[in-house]
Amino acid sequence: MKTARLPLTGRGHYPLSQCLACRPERDRDLILEGDEVIARGSGTSYGDASLNTERHVVLMNRLDRFLSFDPKTGIVHAEAGITLEEITSTFIPRGWCPTVLPLVSQATLGGCVAGDVHGLNHRWTGSFGQQVRQLELLIADGRRIVTSTESNPELFWATVGGLGLTGIITSVAFQLMPVASAYVCVNQRATPDLCVSLELLANASLNNPYAVAWIDCLASGKEFGRGVVTSAHHANESDLPLGTDSHLSLQRKERGSSLLLFGRLSPSWMAKIANKGYYALKAKKESFSLLPFDGFFFPSPPRFLFSKKKRRIRYQCALPSSQSEQGLKAIFKELQASNHPPSHALVQPLGGEGQGLLSFALEGYALDLEIPLVQLEMLNVLDRLDDLVTSLGGRVALLNDCRLRKDAFRSMYPRFSQWSTIKTKIDPQTRFSSDLSRRLIPNVIQNDTFGRVA
Amino acid sequence: MNKAVLVLGATSPIARAAAYELAAKGHSLFLAGRDETELHRLTQDCRIRFNVDVKSGCFDADSCKGHDLFIQYVVKQMGGLEGVVAAFGYHGNKERAIKDFDEAEKILLRNFVGACSLLTACANVLETQGHGFVVGISSIAADRGRQSDYVFGAAKAGLTIFLQGLRNRLFHAGVHVLTVKLGPVDTAATFGEEGLLWLSPPVKVGKKIISALNGGKNEVYLPWQWRISASLLRRLPEWIFKRLKL
């Protein structure tokens, strides 16, 4: 397989690493090369989990074949490089949908498992790893082994959420759920402050599988924490207007309004006006709408907001239920005091802790921020937020992380020592490593002698 | 009307993309190649994605004597034949081919002789039924003999003229022949190489091939920019061209 030195980065364009990439075209081309290697999907995560400065990266996106599908059980088996867009294109018209959907259409199956991603329905269905029935792993000695919750469960739960550090996930068999249509019933209600936002969010998630709150980070005073709570469910036939035929046909080209826009407007006065406008629009009255599948799950903001020169950091943290309101208040206040606060945040309820040893979820709420990295001083603000989150018993998600310190990581992930034992057993020479693993667990990994382009 | 299409060289990413476009339009497929495992995986993938009848089988482009039998086998398996996409080839080692005739022979046999043999067998079937199509994958290297790649260029140039004659012959039988002149595509062969112009992903190329076929085109350059480059190159007088190092 040819190797090329390529500059790789995540969706936030920070950090950027020069990596030795190879790209297998078919399953039998996938052979381990190099002493230090990591797999990479579409590169839609923000952090450095799939970057490996001056070391090998295997680009998995050409390994995208479906291997089998059982229409009786809804279990589909596919190569790890297949994207959620391809999975939904194939199965929504047949009345099946992935149970857990992160809002990123280009995310790969392997990436979803490696990050143990969660969707907006985490309280109802758990994370992606819980839908996986079996996965095939290419391990450090070149062998392929199949693992599941019944066969080698320790390795399975170290791989789910394990960020590719136990081996290369080559194929995954996972559970789909039946859906009645390719439409989503969406309800939106504006909330005047943080307390009401959280209360409504909790209620919304009791009645609807998908629930998320958009919080205006720039509002202060009485309006602090005001937002819009969105709840949704897959439309049943009775929800659709009379005479709707082809209710399972997926309108791939037509994208609905972007409900869950990540704020990319700057300077902040523009963002403040946009936030005010959005809130005022939603505050008029509670809205009920029927959106096509892509309009809710794979929103695509206008292209001009996707500037490649702007660097962004994704800060995702989970706070336990009892500490959520207080924690969110403190976090928003800290962000407002900084020079370049993010314009808005997304808050969603989380169900219990995942079984993946490095899984992010815990019983409480997740906060999702996309922060423009205008000055590196923002990293210090985030370090302070880490300390705050740790003190409240929460944790920061690793999949989109690029700057968490190793001591903070150890406090947030108490099951790390269990994971480390399995890692040492399955990969004694530490063949699978990435920029993230060298940053967070350096004593397990060899010395990092190469600088990274910041 | 039977809508079966034979894809020769189906394991190539371009052929796979073209095959999938055809399957999306409801054609049943016979995927042919050398790698049996990969053919099986592609068959499963295609069946799941498009819910069409997909079969596969191995063929050897080099052994021309077996080609007639192979085409008859495909027609029997699929219950008929609507079209064929000839996407197999062997680019070989350019530097070795110009010095070592064994390599050159391999390139010429597979890309030209083998392709012509299979296309003849397919044409004979399609001519009798009065409808159908043939897609032949040629290359921009066929436009002019350049010092860096003239063996492959010669093979593809021969194929291009063969397809042109086939187009002429089969027009009267209601069968359409499309010649695709491909520039470099983003595949394993070009991965990591710098200085390649207008590199397209295979999925896009596959889609464009089928849309050119549906549009009734006779010849198409993919990506389209190569048409301009090719016409400029062809107009260059020989006394200048022979001095260049392209």
Outline the structure in words.
The complex is a heterodimer of chains A (454) and B (246). With 454 residues, chain A is of the alpha+beta class. Helix content of chain A is 25%, strand content 25%. Chain A has 12 helices and 18 strands. In chain A, the strands form 3 sheets. In chain A, strands 14-11-13-12-16-17-15-18 form an 8-stranded antiparallel beta sheet, sandwiched between helices. In chain A, strands 5, 6, 7, 8, 9 and 10 form a 6-stranded antiparallel beta sheet that branches. The C terminus of chain A is likely disordered. Chain B is an alpha/beta fold. In chain B, helix 1 runs parallel beside helix 2, helix 1 packs across helix 7 and helix 5 packs parallel to helix 6. Chain B is globular. The termini of chain B are far apart. At the A-B interface, strand 1 and strand 5 of A face helix 2 of B.
Alpha-carbon distance between the two ends of chain A: 29 Å
Care to count the β-strands of chain A? Answer: 18
Which spans of chain A of ≥5 residues are poorly predicted at pLDDT below 50?
A: 445-454
Order of helices and strands of chain A: EEEEEEHEHHEEHEEHEEHEHEHEEHEHHH
- Helical percentage of chain A: 10-25%
Q: Over all CA atoms, what is the radius of gyration of chain A?
A: 21 Å
Number of strands of chain B: 7
End-to-end Cα distance of chain B:
48 Å
Q: Fraction of residues of chain B in helices?
A: 40-55%
Strand order across the largest sheet of chain B: 3-2-1-4-5-6-7
* Rg calc of chain B: 18 Å
Tell me what portion of residues of chain A adopts beta-strand conformation: 25-35%
Principal-axes shape call of chain B: globular
Major sheet description of chain A? 8 strands, antiparallel
